[in-house]
Design brief:
With 441 residues, the chain is an alpha/beta fold. Helices cover 50% and strands 8% of the residues.
Amino acid sequence: MAGPPASLSARDVGSFAYLTVKDRSPQILTKAIDTLHRHKSEFFEKHGEKGLEAEKKAISLLSKLRNELQTDKPIVPLVEKFVDTDIWNQYLEYQQSLLNESDGKPRWFLSPWLFVECYMYRRIHEAIIQSPPIDDFDIFKELKDQNFFESQESVIALCTHLQELRKTIEDLDENQLKNEFLKILQISLWGNKCDLSLSGGERISQKTNIMNSLEDLKPFILVNDMDRLWSLLSNYKKTRQKESVTRVDIVLDNSGFELITDLVLAEFLLSSKLATKIHFYGKTIPWFVSDTTLHDFNWIIKQLKHSNNKWVSQCGVDWEDHIKTGRWVYLDHIFWTLPHDFSTMSQVAPDLHAALQKAHLIFFKGDLNYRKLTGDRRWEFTIPFHEALSGFHPAPLCSIRTLKAEVQVGLQPGQGEQLTASEPNWLTTGKYGVFQFDGPL
C-alpha cells in the first residue's frame, strides 16, 4: 500500500507555503522586533539598565533568526533549556533522517512547512526566554488585545443574542433548539477568520455583526457535518442519566473575537444541556501570533466582566462562575506547540491522548489544528477525512475551520477542481469553511 503523500513545503516555488516562508514569516519577525523597540522605555522603567540590555539581546536574536530564514540557512537545534527543548531537538534529528545526502541539513525552504513554521514561533519564544528580565513578555499580546477591542460591536451583538436566548432556551422545542445550535456553530466557524498569522500580523478584526451574515455565508461551507454534531449531542442529552457527565472539549485557536465565539458556543452547550462540562485547550507559550494562552483566556473574561454593557458584563460574570465551579476547565499542554502532527500524540503525549479519550466530542478550531490533524500533506481533495487522520481518533471529533492553507480533504468528486478553476486561491483566503466530523468508531 502506498504511503501518505508528501508534506507541504516551501520547496514548491509559488505555493502558499513558499510565499509564507518567503514573505509573511519575515514580516512577522520584523513586527516582533518593532514591538520590542516600542516597549524599550517600559522595560527601562520596570528593570532599569538590565531591561535595556535584555531588549537589545532579544532584538539581536530575532534579527539573527530573520537572517537565517531569509538566506535559507540550516535549521539549528534549540539551545535554551525549556520543558520541550529535548523533544524539539529530537524532532530536528528525525527531520534530518528523512533527507537524502544531496539535500544536506533541514532548511527553511526545504523541510516540511508545518515543521519550519512551528520552529519559527518556538525560536521567537527562545529569544525571549534567553533575555531575562523580560523573559515573560508576550510579543503578540498587543495585537491580540487590539483585535478584541476593535471587534466590540460584534462582541456586544453576540453577548446580547446569547443572553436573550438563555431566557427562552427552556421553552424551545427540539427543532428551534437545533436551529439555534446551528447558528451558534456557524458564528464559531466564521469567527475563525480573525487570524493574525494569516495577515502577517496586520490588524484584523470582526467589525460587522456576524449574525446578520450567516445566511449569505452558508454557500461557502464546503463540508457541512453540523447535522451529525446535533444528532450526536442531542442523543447524549436524551440518554444521559441524572448524575452523568457529557464533556465537550474545545481545542482553541485564536484569542480576541474568535475566542468570544468559542466561549459563546460553550455557554450554549451548557445552557441547552447538550453538554454538562467543557474542557478548553490553549497554548503554553505565545504562538502563531494570535493563538490563545491562559493569560489571554483569563484576560478576555475579565474584560467582559468589566464591560459597561450589561449583557457583555453578564457573560463575563457567568463565565467566571463556570470556571470557579469547574463546569469550564482551561488546560494547556506542550504538545500543542510541538511540530508533530496529531497522529503521533499517543506516542509523544500519551497523557494528553488519554485525557481526550474521555471527551464525548472534541472540536478542533482553526487551520493549524486542521493541518496537524491531516499531517499537512498534499492529499487529494476527495480522500476521506477519516483516512487523512492517519489513525488519530481519541473520541468523536470535528474540525471547525476556515481555509487558510493548501490542504483540504473529504470533498465531493470535482468540487475542488471546480473551485480551483473559478478561484485559484480558494484554499488560502479564509473565505471558505468546513465542519468536518469523524464520528464514533
